[in-house]
Write a structure and sequence with these properties.
Length: about 200
C-alpha cells in the first residue's frame, strides 16, 4: 500500500464514494470517510444539505480513522459532492478544522449537472496554506468521466512519484481481498468448533 497518499471523502448518495474508491484503488492508497453528526438522508436531509452549503454552515465532524497523522501524507485527495454550487458543508468543516495540517491537496468534486463548478476549487483553497496541486470535476455516468478521472489520476501519481494501477483490475483485486477476508472468520470459527 502506498503510504504517501490518502483519499478522504464525504458522500451522501454514494456517487462520490464510488469515485473515490476508484481513485484510491488506482493509487493503492488509504481511503477514509468523513462524516458529521447530522441526519442528511431523505428529502429533509437533502434540503438541510443545500441550506448548510448556502449558509456555509459547518458542524462537528467525526474523528478520521487514519493510519498516520494528516501532515505526514505527501498528498491528501479530498472528494466531495457539490451542494447548491458549493462544496459540501461536511468537507468545508474538515477544511476549516484541519486544512492547516494538509501539505499538498488535490480535489475531486462530483455533481449531476453539466456545470463544471470550477469556482468550488478556489472556495476550498481558502482553508489551505497553499493552493491545490490538482483538481477534477466529475459527473458520474457522463461520457468524459473515465477520461477526466484518468487524467487526474496521472497528475496525482506524477506529483507523488508513484505507479498507477489499472482501475478495474485494482477494484477487482480489492473485492477479492475483501471476499477472502470475510470468509476467513467463518473458517476459523468452524475450525474452532471441530477442535472442541
Amino acid at each position: 500500500m502506498n503510504r504517501d497518499i490518502i483519499c478522504i471523502f464525504y458522500s451522501r448518495t454514494g456517487h462520490t464514494e464510488r469515485t473515490m474508491r476508484e481513485i484510491a484503488a488506482a493509487l493503492d492508497c488509504e481511503l477514509v470517510e468523513v462524516r458529521d453528526r447530522v441526519r442528511r438522508g431523505g428529502a429533509v436531509g437533502w434540503l438541510r444539505c443545500g441550506l448548510d452549503a448556502m449558509r456555509k454552515r459547518t458542524r462537528a465532524i467525526t474523528r478520521l480513522q487514519m493510519q498516520r497523522q494528516l501532515w505526514e501524507y505527501k498528498l491528501v485527495i479530498l472528494g466531495t459532492p457539490v451542494w447548491a454550487g458549493r462544496c459540501s458543508s461536511v468537507m468545508r468543516g474538515l477544511l476549516k478544522r484541519r486544512g492547516y495540517e494538509m501539505a499538498d491537496v488535490a480535489y475531486v468534486i462530483t455533481h449531476r449537472s453539466e456545470e463544471p463548478y470550477r469556482e468550488i476549487f478556489d472556495q476550498m483553497d481558502q482553508y489551505l496554506q497553499k493552493p491545490r496541486v490538482a483538481d477534477v470535476s466529475l459527473r458520474p455516468g457522463s461520457t468524459g468521466y473515465i477520461f477526466w478521472r484518468d487524467q487526474f489520476l496521472k497528475a496525482c501519481a506524477d506529483f507523488a512519484g508513484v505507479a498507477l494501477r489499472d482501475v478495474e483490475e485494482a477494484l477487482a483485486a480489492e473485492a477479492n481481498r475483501e471476499a477472502a477476508a470475510s470468509k476467513r472468520p467463518e473458517r476459523e470459527s468452524a475450525g474452532g468448533a471441530e477442535a472442541e
